[in-house]
Amino acid sequence: MISSDPEAVSASAYREAMAQLASAVHLVTTDGPGGRAGLTATSVCSVSDGPPTLLVCLNRNSSAYPAFLRNGVLCINTLTAAHEGLATDFAGRVPQAERFAGPDWGRLQTGAPVLAGALVAFDCRIVDRHEVGTHDVLICAVEALAEISGAESLLYAGRHYRVLPRTESKGD
Fold it and tell me: Which residue in 95, 96, 98 sits closest to 68, CA to CA?
């Protein structure tokens, strides 16, 4: 069905359509006066490289949401194929207090938790926030990076985790 009437698109139809899209899987983490918290997210996007800026969308009903706002910092940890279980844990399978018990965590510039072995970690300061529907779009200035090479990226598509194998880039 093709429709241009926004009222004709139900929330369930929209969620079903979005489930068909493949997205990288991230653990978004924070720490500071509001406490340590984290969640799994696929709604992360580059905004600009000058200055380096990302956006992440967080549901205002999430138990972790107040900590992100109070702390004003976050780290977007992009997951590898080895982190599927961790992605499920941070998606709500385990309580907030137990989510950081597993792998090694470090810190970069902002103090937000950085997952050791993440494909890449974007250490950010929240510089703007926009309310849209049930979510906030957080605009985040990247203050530091950590990355590894050779790992396979974890994706989420069709309501299942998938792996995107790394390929060698071919020179000209």
Answer: 96
Percent of the chain scoring above 90 in pLDDT: 65
pLDDT digits (tens, 9 = 90+) for 28-44: 999 999 999 999 999 99
Residue of 19, 170, 69 whose CA lies nearest to 28 = 69
- The CA-based dihedral angle spanning residues 55, 58, 64, 68, taken in that order and rounded to the nearest 10 degrees: 40
DSSP SS3 for 57:
strand
Among residues 76, 70, 32, 33, the alpha carbon closest in space to that of 52 is found at 76
* CATH level 2 (architecture), domain 21-157: Roll (2.30)
DSSP β-bridge partners for residue 137: 57, 130
State the alpha helices, DSSP H only, in the chain.
11-19, 65-71, 84-88
Contact yes or no for 153/24 (Cβ under 8 A): yes
End-to-end CA distance of the chain: 43
Longest CA pairwise span in the chain (Å): 50
